[in-house]
Design goal:
- The longest helix is centred in the C-terminal third of the chain and has 33 residues.
- The strands form 2 sheets. The chain has a 7-stranded mixed beta sheet, sandwiched between helices. Strands 6-8-9 form a 3-stranded mixed beta sheet.
- The protein is built from 13 helices and 10 strands.
- Strand 1 and strand 2 form a beta hairpin.
- It is an alpha/beta fold.
- Bound molecules: ligand LG6FSS7D.
Length: about 375
C-alpha cells in the first residue's frame, strides 16, 4: 500500500473480520497480532490492567495489544485489513509454499520482513525518503521485533533498502500536531521513543545491524544495543543532535562513552562529528567493514553460517553479556526520553526542524 493511500474503511474492516473466520489456523503469533490490531482499531491503546504472570494466554494478548502503544485506530484498522489480505492470498497459494521457504510477512507498510535460513530480516523500506523513521515505522519495527523474539529464527537482522541505512527520525513527524498541542505531541513522542528503545534493550536473540549505507540519528545510537554491526564502506555514522537542538537517545549517552571512550563519544554526540565506516570500526561501534561491491554477499554468507549455531546457546550467551546492564539501560532510556521531551519544545529544536522542512539547511 502506498504511504499516501487512504486508510481502510469500516466496511473493509468488517469484511476482513469475516474473512478471518474462513482462514485456516494462521498460528498463535499471527492470531495475537490480529487480536492486538483488532483491539487497537476498536478501543484504542491498551486500557486494561496487566494480567498476572501465570495468566499466560491473557498476558500474551495484553502484551500484544500494549505493544501497539499509541498507534492510531485508523492505522490499526488498516494494518488489520492488510494482514488479513496477506493471509488470504498466502492461504490461497498455500499448496505451493514450503514450510522452510522464504516467508515474507505481510501487514507492514514501512518494512519488508522475511524469515529464511534461521534469520529474520527486518528491512526498513522507504528508500525514496532515505528510510526516515515515521511514527508508523517505529511501531512496525517494535511489532516485527516482538514477532522475531518468538519465531523460530536464531538471529535477527535490521537493515535498510536503497542507498541509505536510515536518515533517522522523520522530521515531518513533528508536523502532525494533535489537539492537545505541541506539549501532547512531545509527550507522546517521548513515550514512543522509550517503548521503541526498550524493545532493543530487551530483545532476547542476537541482533545484527547490516548497515548498507549512511546512518543518521536514532539509527546510529541504537547500534550500541546490537551484538554485531556490519557496515559497507559507503556507510557513515552521524548524530547531529546539537544541530537539531536535540539531545542523545537510544542509550547512546551511556553506551557510546563505554564503547569509544568519553572524548570520542563527545565529538559524535555533542559536536555531531560524522564518522566514516572505517572510523566507526576503529572506535568499536562497528564490528567489521566490507567493500560495498561485495558487502551483501559476504555479510549474508557469514550470517547464514552463524544462524546454524545452536540457537539456545546463542540466546543464553547474549543474555549473559547483556543482562547485568539491562536495568541501567532502561534507566538511561527513561532519562534520555524525558530530556528529549523538553528539548522538542525548545526554540532551538523547533527552528532546526523548520529549517529542514523549508529546505533552508541541510546537514
Ligand atoms: C519519536 C522518536 C524520535 C526519536 C528521535 C531521533 C533523533 C534523530 O534521529 S535526529 C536525526 C534526524 N535526521 C536528520 O536530521 C536527517 C535529515 N535529512 C537530511 O539531512 C538529508 O535528507 C540527508 C542528508 C539524509 C540526505 O540528503 P540527500 O540530499 O541525499 O537527499 P534528500 O533529497 O535530502 O532526501 C530525499 C528525500 O528524503 C527526505 N528525507 C530524508 N531524510 C529525512 C528525514 N530524516 N526526515 C524527513 N524527510 C527526510 C527528504 O526530505 C527528501 O524528500 P523529498 O524528495 O520529498 O524532498
Amino acid at each position: 500500500m502506498s504511504e499516501t493511500a487512504m486508510g481502510a474503511s469500516q466496511k473493509d474492516f468488517e469484511s476482513a473480520m469475516s474473512q478471518v473466520k474462513r482462514l485456516k489456523d494462521p498460528g498463535n503469533e499471527v492470531k495475537l497480532k490480529l487480536y492486538a490490531l483488532y483491539k487497537q482499531a476498536t478501543e484504542g491503546p491498551c486500557n486494561t490492567p496487566k494480567p498476572g504472570v501465570f495468566d499466560l494466554i491473557n498476558k500474551a494478548k495484553w502484551d500484544a495489544w500494549n505493544a501497539l502503544g499509541s498507534l492510531p485506530k485508523e492505522t490499526a484498522r488498516q494494518n488489520y485489513v492488510d494482514l488479513v489480505s496477506g493471509l488470504s492470498s498466502s492461504s490461497d497459494s498455500s499448496s505451493q509454499v514450503k514450510p522452510e521457504a522464504d516467508r515474507k510477512q505481510s501487514g507492514y507498510e514501512t518494512l519488508v520482513v522475511t524469515s529464511e535460513d534461521g534469520i529474520t530480516k527486518i528491512m526498513m523500506n522507504r528508500p525514496a525518503k532515505k528510510n526516515a523513521m515515521t511514527m508508523r515505522m517505529y511501531e512496525e519495527i517494535m511489532l516485527a521485533l516482538k514477532a522475531a523474539s518468538k519465531d523460530d529464527s536464531a538471529i535477527t537482522v535490521l537493515t535498510g533498502n536503497g542507498d541509505y541505512y536510515s536518515s533517522g527520525n522523520d522530521l515531518t513527524n513533528f508536523t502532525d500536531i494533535p489537539s492537545g498541542g505541541v506539549e501532547e505531541k512531545a509527550k507522546n513522542s517521548a513515550i514512543l521513543l522509550r517503548d521503541f528503545v526498550d524493545c532493543f534493550i530487551d530483545f532476547p536473540k542476537p541482533l545484527i545491524a547490516v548497515v548498507n549505507g549512511p546512518a543518521v540519528g536514532i539509527s546510529v545510537t541504537i547500534l550500541g544495543l546490537f551484538e554485531v554491526v556490519y557496515a559497507s564502506d559507503r556507510a557513515t555514522f552521524h548524530t547531529p543532535f546539537s544541530h537539531l537542538g536535540q539531545s542523545p537517545e537510544g542509550c547512546s549517552s551511556y553506551t557510546f562513552p563505554k564503547i569509544m571512550g568519553p572524548a570520542k563519544a563527545a565529538e559524535m554526540l555533542i559536536f555531531g562529528k560524522k564518522l566514516t565506516a572505517a572510523e566507526a570500526c576503529a572506535q568499536g561501534l562497528v564490528t567489521e567493514v566490507f567493500p560495498d561491491s561485495t558487502f551483501q554477499k559476504e555479510v549474508w554468507t557469514r550470517l547464514k553460517a552463524y544462524s546454524k549455531l545452536p540457537p539456545n546457546a546463542m540466546r543464553i550467551s547474549k543474555q549473559m553479556i547483556r543482562n547485568r546492564e539491562k536495568e541501567k539501560l532502561h534507566a538511561v532510556n527513561a532519562e534520555e526520553s524525558s530530556t528529549l521531551q523538553e528539548r522538542w519544545l525548545s526554540d532551538e529544536c523547533m527552528n532546526a526542524i523548520m529549517n529542514f522542512l523549508t529546505r533552508k539547511a541541510k546537514l
